[in-house]
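Late entry, written up from scratch paper. The run itself happened at the end of the previous shift, but nothing got recorded in the book at the time, so transcribing now.
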Amino acid sequence: MTLAQRTLGTRSPLTVSALGLGCMGMSEFYGDTDRASGIATIRRALDIGVSFFDTADMYGPFVNEELVGEAIAGRRDEVVLATKFGNERLADGTRLGINGTPEYVRSACDASLTRLGVDHIDLYYQHRVDKSVPIEDTVGAMAELVQAGKVRHLGMSEASASTIRRAHAVHPITAVQTEYSLFTRDLEETVLPTLRELGIGLVPYSPLGRGLLTGAIAHESELAATDSRRTSYFPRFQGEALATNLELVQRIGTIADRLNCTPGQLALAWVLAQGDDIAPIPGTKRVPYLEENVSALDVQVTQDVLNELESAVPAGAVAGARYGDMSSIDE
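Output as recorded:
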């Protein structure tokens, strides 16, 4: 089975399935994890035409790459594999900070290749910008990985417009990954115009607002005790902010009902409609949610529907910052 395809980047183009799969939650952050369920979800994604998979060394830490590697074993030629470096952690989960030194770039890539069980990474992102290291030095080291055949394409994550411009001058950047959804639209001001000026694709993570836009979360108590969304690190899930945001989700649900789709499918359809240079990566660890997300590609949204959605959920209407601590975000 083949899904619709999209091409990220123009100077170093990469063709991916129009909808990818974020694998983070299979190993950490969103409550209980089940390795077997994660592997089954990845394999089902391949069966229904999803080719674009996103992981990172810090998820787990480390074990998510191993999970993805096991799931795609024997099917590497069907996969566009993306992973990330830069959020340095120890095996016990201790966070050491953001590291963009050339030495770390090289060692992190080799470690990821080993855990994934592959000889190259299709899209290698700097996960967060190390503000203590010139971006030219970090991307220069990443470019060496391309020359060595270990990496095919380069990406940035949560980088500012000025940093993206400087990085792209060193080596073509194929894609920038950042949060983008009906609830998070700040990149539209400077980042998205810069991407389009330079011919760089956009890979939105959390296009479902970390599950909030699906309508499946009515109260924070429904989340597992180990779910990080219950903490102050995610203000949009707390108290009055959550109540305000659920009212916005109800408005989306009303429109979705009329279109015979779920709120989550409509939210994904909105992201997909923002341009053919965009390939979102909604995350899930369960097959039914994966299948529901992929069906968003069948939701037809006219300009009238898009206008109605933007009236129902105006840019900036969401309550709460996307992170409780935004210090790691490049601005």
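The two ends are 41 Å apart (CA to CA).
(Scratch paper discarded after transcription.)
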